[in-house]
Design brief:
Oligomer: heterodimer
Distance between the termini of chain A: 12 Å
Shape of chain A: globular
Radius of gyration of chain B: 19 Å
Helix content of chain B: 40-55%
Structural class of chain A: alpha/beta
Order of helices and strands of chain B: EHHEHEHEHEHEHEHEHHHHHH
Distance between the termini of chain B: 67 Å
Chain lengths: 295, 340
């Protein structure tokens, strides 16, 4: 069992709190913010969790420090806080785009990162698609992988909107480094339809001509089952679609995987699968670190 | 004397959809030379889905965008070269490369309700010293007042002109007129208003005339209507029509006719046409670029393209969600199997 603080009592922090309170591996230490009027802090108190608007200064002044901190603030705040957590010996799980630490995608590379002082959760689209890129690249070489994430407009906050390039660039890099593709590309689309659309993700991987499609499909199915252990609403929309090489694809053969990510409806609505998969993946990281023993 | 309007030709951008993004450098040089000689002031050159559009989802470009932009800049003597960018797909880095290649107009496109994702790109474009144009795509999906509020967001972010973009060719006369009037009222004393029409219901030119009469000062066209769906308002028809109306465009009618007939028509395999699929797009309000993708999925999965497009319209998919076309085709296949 590890103790964990949540810094940032917004939508993400509050949804994460609900998930961590269900966990047998994590004891929630506290919820930390900077605004005394915050709904998230009030909600935490109502759930019996110590909550403070005193920020990271308050957290680090406690006699009993947490083993972990989940940072759900902003990239700027995390860049300032990260060295302080490390100095205090607290492992940071970073849900912001700061990416000071290595990218982590639980079913792909968490095992090799258990000792890292700071882990970055990439992006929602990355958590949804990188497992699939990895499932394909562990069977055949993937010279190029491309993902399209479609999310409900209402689930894209002002931070995402003001810096949407951060999503495409970070996700593309992680498709390469964690997913195992030689080259990655990421696309994000906001759809305002009402009722809101459930998060959808499509993964296209270039594969060699004559690749063992049965083995690739099996690997994809296995990975979907693994992700669904911590994101119950993660599912294939259809069997992986294989296409022979085409000239218009620069001679590449292709597998296309169509995914749906329905959120768990813990604090955020079900259609916000993009937010749910971030908090679920972060909680998974916390639980696995707890099982692997604290640093 | 009537105000002059500015024609932006998008043969080499929206037309890229109809060409499956396979323009050659030679074709780009030929089209730019002809348009520039005819007096067209702005020529847009990019993958149909904008910078960074080359992909499995939208189709790979035969030639790199930046190479084609450089060739266009080299060929033009007077015309400015414009590039399109869809935030979420292209990035500021792509824009910088286009600027370095000589592009001087940045056209930033978002779905009509999502203008605030463009602010980063308008700021970058202005820093790069580019002229800026905002594109509110699928403008039929929201009413005039709401559209004007989105245009305001773009202008506050640095757009010097905002377009009502009828991506589905679904605006029917008064619909275009009301939207243009609402934008002119909201942003007219700070920025220009533009109109980008499609021919799915054959109203591109008529809507453009109504747009001009309601205060639009930038109008898009494409030679031979080359564009997504049933194509764009044909540049040569726009130029001839506006001349008859006494609205100056600065473009020579004979030059535009020659550019269409002598330069573009010879390299087209098929002329844009309002066929069943394209009309369904206008009728059901579906993004015009989905047409060829729906035809390909129809061929691959043995279900009719117009049924795919109808379903895509009902689901409310927006520009960029080309992957959903395959998803819909697979659903139709499943439904047919169940019915058998």
């Amino acid at each position: 069992m590890l103790s964990a603080a949540i810094v940032g009592p917004g939508n993400i922090g509050t949804d994460l709190l609900v998930k961590l309170l269900r966990s047998d591996e994590i004891k929630v230490h506290s919820m930390v913010g900077v605004d005394p009027e915050s709904d998230g802090l009030a909600r935490a108190r109502a759930l019996g969790v110590p909550a403070s608007a005193g920020g990271v200064d308050w957290l680090l002044a406690q006699d009993d420090l947490p083993d972990l901190v989940f940072e759900a603030t902003s990239a700027k705040a995390h860049l300032a806080n990260a060295p302080r957590y490390e100095a205090a010996g607290i492992t940071a799980v970073d849900l912001t785009p700061a990416a000071t630490g290595p990218f982590v995608c639980p079913p792909v590379n968490l095992g090799s990162l258990a000792e890292a002082p700071n882990l970055n959760m990439i992006t929602c689209g990355g958590q949804a698609t990188i497992p699939i890129v990895h499932a394909v690249s562990s069977v055949v070489p993937v010279p190029y992988a491309e993902i399209v994430a479609s999310i409900a407009s209402r689930s894209a906050g002002p931070g995402t909107r003001a810096n949407i390039d951060e999503f495409t660039q970070t996700t593309a890099r992680a498709i390469e480094r964690v997913g195992g593709a030689d080259r990655g590309k990421a696309i994000i689309i906001l759809n305002p339809v009402d009722p809101p659309m459930i998060m959808r993700d499509t993964v296209f991987c270039a594969i060699p001509d004559g690749a063992d499609t049965g083995a690739i499909a099996e690997s994809v199915h296995r990975m979907v089952a693994e992700v669904a252990e911590y994101v119950p609403g993660y599912a294939l929309r259809a069997e992986p679609q294989f296409d022979a090489p085409r000239d218009i694809w620069r001679g590449m053969a292709r597998v296309a995987v169509f995914l749906e990510v329905r959120g768990n409806g813990d604090y955020l609505p079900e259609w916000a699968g993009n937010l749910d998969i971030m908090t679920a993946a972060a909680a998974r990281v916390g639980e696995q670190l707890a099982r692997g023993g604290a640093r | 004397m009537t105000d002059k309007i500015r024609i932006t030709d998008s043969t080499l951008r929206d037309g890229s959809h109809a060409m499956a993004h396979r323009f050659t450098e030679e074709q780009v040089r030929g089209v730019v030379h002809a348009l520039d000689s005819a007096g067209v002031e702005v020529i847009e050159v990019t993958h149909g889905d904008g910078l960074g559009g080359s992909s499995f989802n939208y189709g790979f470009s035969l030639e790199d965008d930046i190479k084609l932009v450089s060739a266009a800049v080299d060929e033009a003597t007077r015309a400015k070269i414009a590039v399109l960018l869809l935030p979420g797909l292209g990035t500021v880095e792509d824009l910088k490369r286009a600027r370095a290649a000589g592009a001087s107009v940045a056209r930033i496109a978002t779905h009509c309700t999502e203008a605030d994702v463009s602010l980063q790109h308008f700021a970058a474009a202005r820093d790069l010293g580019m002229e800026t144009v905002g594109f509110l795509m699928l403008s039929h999906r929201i009413g005039p007042d709401e559209l004007a509020r989105q245009a305001r967001i773009m202008v506050d972010g640095g757009a010097q002109c905002v377009y009502v973009v009828d991506s589905a060719g679904a605006l029917v006369l008064g619909d275009a007129q009301e939207r243009i009037a609402a934008l002119v009222k909201e942003i007219g004393h700070e920025a220009e208003v533009g109109f980008h029409g499609h021919q799915n219901l054959s109203l591109g030119v008529a809507n453009s005339v109504l747009a001009q009469q309601n205060g639009a000062r930038q109008i898009d066209g494409a030679l031979c209507a080359l564009g997504a769906g049933a194509g764009n308002s044909p540049t040569e028809v726009l130029v001839a029509t506006f001349e008859r109306l006494g609205v100056p465009t600065g473009v020579d009618v004979q030059g535009a006719l020659a550019a269409a007939d002598d330069v573009v028509k010879p390299f087209l395999d098929r002329l844009p046409f309002a066929d069943r699929g394209a009309i369904t797009q206008g009728y059901a309000g579906v993004y015009s670029s989905f047409l060829l993708h729906a035809e390909r999925a129809a061929e691959r999965y043995g279900v009719p393209a117009h049924e795919i497009l109808q379903r895509v319209g009902e689901a409310g998919y927006v520009g960029g969600q080309e992957d959903m076309i395959i998803d819909v085709a697979l659903q139709l296949v499943r439904e047919r199997e169940r019915a058998e």
